[in-house]
Design a protein that fits this description.
The protein is of the alpha/beta class. It contains 15 helices and 7 strands. It has a 7-stranded mixed β-sheet with strand order 1-2-3-4-7-6-5, sandwiched between helices. The N and C termini lie far apart (49 Å).
Amino acid sequence: MRTVYDQFAKQLLRDALAASGSVETDAEVSSDPQRIDVLYVADPEPASAALRSALGLISRLVEAACLLEPFHQTPDADELLACRRKHLAFRHAWRSGGKKPPDPMLWVLSSGRPEAAMRGLEFRRAAGFPRGVYLAAPWLRLGLVVISALSERRDTLLLRLMGAGRVLRRAVAELLRLPPDALERRLALPVLLRLRLKILAEPEQRTADDAEFLMSTQDIVETWRQQAFAEGIEKGIEKGIEKGIEKGREKGIEEGTLRGLVQGLVEVYRARFGPVPEEARALLERTTDERLVRAWFEPFASASAAEILEALRSSAR
């Protein structure tokens, strides 16, 4: 059964690969009602190749046209064979559409070892790849990444964030230790935050996997919030100083800090719900109490859009 975590993996792969080639999620298979999770065709330009190289092990998986199927829960033999059926259908459509060989590779990204499928399809360690990467017979164009078997190195981090349990916990901790401007942080933090907020918004549907994910990512919100504070305050201070030149530098900084905090709230809202409604934005812009603005970050990160708007209305009364 596919899960919200597989959706997370698709979004992370899409965001990571979009700058260096053509990437499509849920690509249709013309002869099959199912869909390919991620289809990627690399852009051969040197600039795109340089962007891909920064993605570590992922860049080696996607050197040629490929399909990527992530599994947060280790797939059984039937699920892996279902991926193989989609792969065959897609290869037929690929050639029928005039595409030249080589046919696209299928990479299955599995959190654990699908032992039965590995035996049945005779997967072997992939020569020239790190541990955890396997290939079936060459004509099958089928590869497997066992995420739990990958070494804890930076070039495997984006893949390990698609893992489960201890692997995910350690990967998140490693992610948060990277510099704020690290590519992995810029790619993964927004997607992790969206998944966390989705789980928090649906408590009645929460599973054991969800509880484990929330525990593994509990530091994500605070880290992202601090980053939003810093970025928002920096922009706000610049605007505040510009507006406050005539009133004096000190007052300009004070105004800029408040505007920066407001901008931070706007970014939290956008991450959860999209564009901020005009009424909510107007209420935020009229706020002059910095302590109140700081207190709003918690409800902005956890309350519903309707509850946030009502809180803003109440403060203006």
